[in-house]
Structure formats: C-alpha cells, structure tokens
Amino acid sequence: MVSRFSRWLTLLLIVVFLTAHSVEARQSIKDQSLEQADSLRSAGQLDLALEAYNSIISKTEVDTLISLALVGKALTLFSQGDAGESAKIFQEALTQQLAYLNSNSYKLLRTYAMLGYLNRYFLEEERLAIDYYRKEYEIISDHPDRATERQKFYSNYNLATTYRLIEDFEMALNHAFQGLEIATTADNNQYLEFSYSVIANLYNVLGEEVKAIPYYEKKINLNLRMNGEGHPTLINDYNNLGVVYSDISEFKKAEELFRKSLNISLINQADNNEISNTHLLLGKVIGLNGHLQSGLQYMRKALKLKNSDLEQSRVLSHMAQLYEHFDKLDSSLIYYQRALLLEGHDIYEQPSQALIQRTPFLFRILSYKAGAMLSKYHKRQDVKALESARESYRLMGKLASYYRNYFNTEEARLFFREYTHAHNEKALESIYLMFQRTNDFNLIDEAWEIFEKSKALSLFESVKRAQKFTDLGINDSIVQSEQHFIQEISNLRNQMNACELASNCEESEISKIRGQLLENENAHNTLKDVLKRDFPNYFNTHYNSESASISDIQANLGESLMISYFQGEKTIFWISVEQDKKRFGRIVLDQEFIEQHNHFVEEVRGSRLQSKSLSQSFRDYQDASHYLYQSLLEPILSETQHTSLIILPDGILSELTFEAFTKTKATEASNYDYKGLDYLIRSYEISYAYSASLCMEQRQTPTISNPQLIAFGDPDNSAFHNLPGTAIELDVLSQFGSTRIFKQSEASEDAFAKITQNDVDILHMALHAKADTLNPMNSGFVLSNQADSNGDGIMHLYELYGMLIPAKLVVLTACETGVGQWKRGEGILSLSRGFIYNDNPNLIMSLWKVNDQQSAKMMESFYTAIYSGTSTGKALKTAKLRFLETADELTAHPSNWAGLVYLGDSDFRIDITSFSNAKLIYWSLTALLIIIVGFKKNWSLRRETNP
User: Fold this and answer.
1) Where are the beta strands (DSSP E) in 476-602?
2) Residue 329 half-sphere exposure, CB side, CA atoms within 13 Å?
3) Would strands 571-578 and 560-567 be described as parallel, antiparallel, or unpaired?
4) What is the per-residue pLDDT for 925?
5) How far apart are CA 202 and CA 209, in angstroms?
C-alpha cells in the first residue's frame, strides 16, 4: 500500500514539475516575444513592433504581460506621431495595471508620467494632465528612496508649469519652489535655470514684478557663470528682465538691459528677426520714457528688418500703441490701419473678414483699433469714431463665431478667452454709448445677440470638456471624422500663417494650401449637416450660433419679465424684456459692489453666523441684500407691474439668489428677525435660465399626465456621511403618484444608469454632490458604492453628458460642494449643465448645502402643490413662503430656504385631469359600495324584523 502511494506521489510530483516547467517555458517564450517587440521599437521598426505588441495582447492572458505590451504599443504609437491614440492605449494599460497593482505602486510611475505628458503637451487637456501628474507626484512622495532626483524635480516642474496654464498660480508657485529646493540641494545648473525661469514668470503673471526680478537676475548670473559674457542665450534673459523693469516704469534700467541684449545680438550676428525684436523693445521703452521720436526711430529700424507682411504689421501695431500712449490718436489710428492693411490710411475702412480669418493675429490689432476709436469718441465726442468702433467689434463677433468651430485648438482657445472676457464688454460699451445718443431701440437687439452668444459659450465649454470623456452618444467614426477635419483645418491655417511669414514662400504654394483648406472646410460642412440631422443636441451646442431674438422672446414671454445680465471687468450690462417693452442699462462694477456681493454670498449661506454676533450678521445681511436689490433690480422693477421674473445671470451674479434680496432699507434694530424681512420672494415668482434661447425651448415643454417619479437618496457610501433628512424626504415622495424609490444599496450608479434611460418624468435626487473645480467633468453625485460595477459610487458629470434621460423635471436637493472653491461656470452649476444638455427642461437645484431636514419640509409642500395642478415655479415659491410662515426668527434665515432655485419654465405643470378622473372613479365606486352595503344591511334588518 505504501509502495502504491509512493508511486502515485512520485507521478504527481512529476506532473507538477512538468506543468510548472511548461508554464515557465511558455512564460519565457512570451517574455522573449516582449523583448523582441521592444527591440523592434528601439530599432525604429515601428510597424513591425506594433504587430508584435498586438500579437502578445491578443494571445496572452497574463495581466502583467498585457499591460507591458500595452505600454510598448502606446510608446510606439507616440513615436509614430499619434499622441491621441497613444494616450488611449496608455489609459488602457493603466486600467490593466490597476487590476493587479495598488494605486500608489511605484510600477505605475511611468504610465502616470506619460499620461500627464501627452495630455499636457499634445492633447491640450491641462486639467487631465494635472490629475496624472499629481498621481506621479504622490507615488514619488510615497517612495522617496526609489525615486531619482530627476523624477523628483520634473514631477514638480511639470506640475508648476501646468498649474500656471490653468491659472492656479498658488499651486504653481508651491511646486516651483519645491523644484527649486531639489535643484539647490543637487546643485544642478539646468534644474536651477528652469526653476528660476518658472518662478520669475509666475510672479510676473501675478503682477508682482518686484518679486520676479531677483529670479530673473539669478538666472542671468547663472548663465554668466556657465557661459560667460556675450553668450547668445543672454539675449532672451536680458530682454525678459528688461520687460519687467519696463512694466514697473523703471525705463532707464530696462533700456540698459535692452542695449546689452542688442550688443550681444550684433556681436553674435543673430538673425534679423531677433535683432528686430530687440530694436522694437528698446524703441518702446525709450518712447515710454518720454522720448517719442527716438523710440519711433528704433521701431522703424525694427520694421526694416522684418521680411514678412505679418511681422511688419506687428511692429506697426506697437508704433500705433506708442502714439496712443502720447494721446496722438489720429496718428495711432493711421498706424493701426496700416497694420491691418499694411498700406491702408483711411482709418474708418474695415479689413475683410476673409483676411483676418486667414491671419488670426490681425484680430488683436483690430481690437486695439476699436479701443482707440472708443478713446477718440470719449475725448472728442466723434460719433463717426464711435460707429467705427462698433463696426470693428461687430466684425470681431463674426470672427468669433467662425473660430468657435475650432475651439479645441490652443490658438482658438486663447482667441476665445481674450474675446469673451474683454471685447464683448467693449463692444457692449460702444453699443450702449450709441444707444444713449440715438435712442435707437434696434441697438438693444444688437447688444442682446452678444449677451446670448456669451452665455451659450458656457454650455459649449462644458460639452467640449465632456467630449474628452465620452462620445456623447455619437458614433465613434463621426467623432473621429469631425476631429480629423478640425485638426486638418487648424494645421492648414498654421501653414498659411507660416508661409505668409516666410519671405521665400511661392504664390503657387500658398494657392495649394488655400485649395486644401477650402476642400477640408467643405467636407467639414457636409459632416455638420449630418450632425444637425442626426445629433441635434451635439450640433446645437457646438455649431449653432443662432440665438433667440428679442422679438422671439416677446412673442413667447407671456406675463413674465426677463432680465439678462452680462458681467464684464468694469461694468455689468442688463437688458430687460417684456411683451411690449425692452430696456438697456449698465451698472458700475466697482469695489463697493464686489464687497457687497461677497458679503451677501457669505451671509445668505450662513457661513458668517458663527464668526460674529447674530445682530451684527443680521444688519450686514440687510445692508448687502438691499444694496444688491437697488443696484440690480430696482431700476427695472420700478417701471413694471410684472410679478413673474426670469433671471439670466452671468459671472459672479450666478452665485446670487435674487429672491433673498430685501426691498426695504436696513433697520437699526439691535435684535435679529429674518422672518420679518421684506424678501423679494414675497412679491415675485422667480426662475432662472442659462440663456434666453434655452429658456424659450424649455417653455415649449408639454404638460405631463400621471408622471413616473423616480427618486434616489440615502445611499450606502462610507466616504460620505448620511443625511438623515433625505430618508424623511424619500418617505414624503412615496405618497405621490407612481413613485419608485432607490435608497441605500439600491441607490447605485448602475441602477441610476439603467433606470433613468426608461420612462421617467420626474427625477428626484436627494444626494450629496461632489464638486471638482480642478477638473469640472469629475464633479458628480454621490451614490452607493456597494455592489457597483464601477466601485466609486460617483455619477460623474461626463457620464451625465453621455446619457439621454427623458425626465421633464429634475430635482436636486441636499447638495453640497464637498471639495474645491466656487469658480465661474464650475462646481454644482456644471452638474446642472449635464441635465440641460440632455433636454431636461426644468431643474430645481441647490446652490449650497441646504439643511436636509428643512429641505424635506419644503419638498413636501412643493410636491403637494404640483400634484394639485400648481405650476412648478409657483409651487416652489409657495413651499418657500410656507417654510417662512412656520419658521421662527432665526430658522427663517435664507440659508435654510433660498439655496433651492428653479431653472426652466416656471409655468410647467402636471396635468391633474387623470388624477381627478381616477379620484372620481375611486370615490364613485366607494359610494356605490357604501350604498350596496347599506342596502344589504337594511334588507337583512327588515327580514329579521318581518320574518
């Protein structure tokens, strides 16, 4: 028996050995295959390498080998110039690696670094790049002994430069100084040079030029030690420091540095363009120091050294700015005109749209010219100059619509940013000034178009971000074709600009590029027709620049008053529209307005209640709320009888809840009584909208009968604390109509994705909201992370854009920002845009964390009202007023009720006919049953008494 057992044991060991050896052999073969693929890539045989990597990926089931092959494939694609596909494969490799590695594993370092690099430098997705760079930074911090000095430095350097791009200068400086510490410890000159540059640049951008100077000087001294005097690399160093001194009006020091730079350029026989640039800088600073003619002489030297029309136009525009500095507006305008048309002297002549479309830099010169025309009007009341400025801004508006199609390119993004923040405000100023002179009400329509296009851009930007995460329900091939045409058109336009800058570019080559550009634009237009037909939401957001006119609004406005705002840097413009009236005004955005705005936001959210006495907080709230009422509404409301308001806010006004403004001036009472204040909601029904065009679409939503209500709340998610009031809220909802409740583990992301695609008329979400202002597309709603295939328990904004939720009313309560700061167009407001894009026309949302138990009370009042046939806008107003009626003096604080706002058609309602009929049938059957029962009892009684 023992012998038999020994033989079986021996045989088993042999089988195990052979199996292990076989697996080892197969693994060895696979490892050799990976080595061969890597060798092919290193040898530059990229097509063969791709085939080898694809073969490994398709034939092996070993996670580690698949991930390594994916990384190799991604690197090969990058070497072939396909950064977009490379990033996709790196992301796939990361997903594969995370299946068997911890998220902070050192082995993930290269993948995160490459994803950051690709998104930063090739895909122009700086916020995504920061996400990956931060992961790289965290891994290095967790493994300080394994990370090299180079990895530590460049991790900080990449974060610093990328944070600078998204204008988070505090974080940028933080990482720049960490990088400098590493560079100093290592005594690495290259690292020191990079650190000095980025820190100086950051201080310069922040307007802290005095702090920038020492770092520019350290860079120069380092350069002198390394390369000696007269080295060509000092040209830019001296010029950069000279520009800083010029900015702080230290013109003598700036001139000295520019002369040093010029001497080095001449000694080293630098190219004409470099010498020309230094002449230009020197001329500008000499001019600003009070010597106009001497400065112009250097600028003329710069002009002679420029070979191309485009470069000459840039010098001419600087000469124009110098003339403008000396208040010589006529000369300034001549030079601006020459810069636009090279030989044009008629200052009122406008360049063609085609010219500026082909050469985007001319847009900037056109804006300078328009600004000078406005100055000429202010100084001389020259109406022709005002009209010319207005015409220039109108042309710039047309160009902005053209460039919007190519907004994913860095050039167009910078173009749009500059246009929307500065030129719209100046354009509106020119229109407003002309309106004051002529009282021509057609000018209000012209201003209205600017209002609408600027508001539409906000949704457009959100959708462009979402497109990086999801195809938005569009066929992949169509999205790829669209991106191809956009990129081709952008590349051809860049080639056109480069050709125009070059002195040796043949006309035949320019004609060829123009032909290719026209061919691609025609093909893109054909594709847009397909998008318009098959994907209207996507098309309207990306390409449709048509906006609802004032006459369209007036025809559909009913008894409401619409007030649209535009916030610029110095001015807030407003347009009010009624059925038979339109008005146009402006408000100075001064320091007092900013302070009162900030006080109101802090007070209305209750964030200052704990920091001072209740009576002081009460007085501050009264002051701020009444000030904003007087500034933003009183001039409009004093001339109308309408009690239904539609507010279209902009910029910082998006943080305000207008219904919490107070109509009467603050009292000197020493106590507090928030219940007794004359809130605007007591007199007006208020709703909000992103734009008038969206509002008009929302007002066409049909009523709904016997609605299907789906509610999510009280999810199981260990990362967020429970909201006790949401359980009460869900119980309240179960009383109304056809309701389905998802709570605790049922309130999962999977359930949300499945259920909301089906019949849902009202979607109620009593959930936390997580706002990510660094990367807004990562904002989302907190759901259960139990038994969820994704595991994170967050329904992200980008996922919302990919859905088609058929709800006619969406209610978002118990929201809180969770993380981050409130920024224009970000956070919670971004979440609502996901629903707007999905054709959810009516939305109730919370601008801040409302007490969940108070929210439950208001929701009970709200739903009771709408299920009784009350319009949604009036129902929300009724719920808030009822809350105020039952509250005490302190509980009536607006932080408990004003945060819930309504976006959409305030007249939207539920058809209660079906409910009434059901009730009639119910009560009729009940009455009939009572009669029958009564009859039977009566008949039985008679039989007993009369046998």
Assistant:
1) 560-567, 571-578, 581-588
2) 14
3) antiparallel
4) 55
5) 9
Give the pLDDT mean for 487-492. 74
pLDDT band for position 22 (cuts 50, 70, 90):
very low
Q: Is 315 helix (H, G, I), strand (E, B) or coil?
A: helix
DSSP three-state, residue 576: strand
**Residue 9: how many CA atoms within 13 Å on its side-chain side?**
6
Phi, psi of 502 (to 5 degrees): -80, 140
The tokens describing 248, both together, are 């702080």
Give helix 169-186 / helix 149-165 axis angle, nearest 10°: 160
Place of tokens 């808030």: 880
Single-letter amino acid code for the residue at 590:
D
pLDDT at 756 over 80: no
Residue pair 662/625 in contact (Cβ under 8 Å)? The answer is yes
In the block, which residue shows the tokens 């230290």? 250
Containing 379, the helix (H) or strand (E) segment is: helix 361-380
Q: How many CB atoms lie within 10 A of CB 580?
A: 7
Residue 168, helix vs strand vs coil: coil
**What local confidence, expressed as pLDDT, does residue 755 receive?**
77
H or E element in which residue 843 lies: strand 842-846
| More confident: 608 or 126 | 126
Measuring CA to CA, which residue among 837, 123, 132 is closest to residue 540? 837
* 581-588 and 571-578 beta bridge pairing: antiparallel
Query: What average pLDDT does the chain have?
Result: 83
Distance CA 621, CA 666 (A): 9
Q: 786: pLDDT confidence band, cut at 50, 70 and 90?
A: low
**Distance between CA atoms of residues 71 and 89, nearest Å:** 7
SS3 238: helix
Which residue, chain included where needed, has tokens 């964030």?
A: 607
- Of 644, 521, 530, give the one whose Cα is nearest residue 578: 644
Please tell me the least confidently modeled range out of 106-115, 489-498, 613-622, 885-894: 489-498
Residue 231 exposed, middle or buried by CB count within 10 Å (0-12, 13-18, 19+): middle
pTM given for the model: 0.78
Confidence at 212, pLDDT banded by 50, 70, 90 = very high
What pLDDT does residue 751 have?
85
* Residue 860 Cα distances to 22, 863, 866, 876, angstroms: 69, 5, 10, 10
Q: What is the pLDDT of residue 823?
A: 44
The rounded distance, in Å, linking the Cα atoms of 329 and 321 is 9
| Residue 808, amino acid | K
Residues 6+ apart with CB under 8 A from 806: 757, 759, 760, 761, 839
Whole-number pLDDT of residue 18: 38
Instruction: pLDDT band for 820, please (50, 70, 90 cuts).
Output: very low
Residue with tokens 């990956």: 132
- How far apart (Å, rounded) are the C-alpha atoms in residues 514 and 488? 12
CB 155 within 8 A of CB 117: no
Say how far apart CA 513 and CA 22 lie, in whole Å.
Answer: 60
| φ and ψ of 435, to 5 deg | -65, -40
HEC string for 701-738: CCCEECCEEEEEEEECCCCCCCCHHHHHHHHHHCCCCE
Sign of CA dihedral 77, 83, 85, 87: positive
CA distance 677 to 591: 26
Q: Does the pLDDT at position 796 exceed 60? A: yes
Higher pLDDT, 865 or 310: 865
Q: How large is the angle between the packed helices 329-341 and 309-325, nearest 10 degrees? A: 170
Contact 192, 184 (CB under 8 A): yes
CA distances for 467 relative to 88, 538, 541, 542, angstroms: 14, 10, 12, 11
Are 856 and 732 within 8 A, CB to CB?
yes
DSSP, residue by residue, 67-97? HHHHHHHHHHHHHTT-HHHHHHHHHHHHHHH
Question: Each residue of 500-517: pLDDT tens digit?
Answer: 656 567 777 878 888 888
Q: Look at 31 and 320; give whichever has higher pLDDT.
A: 320
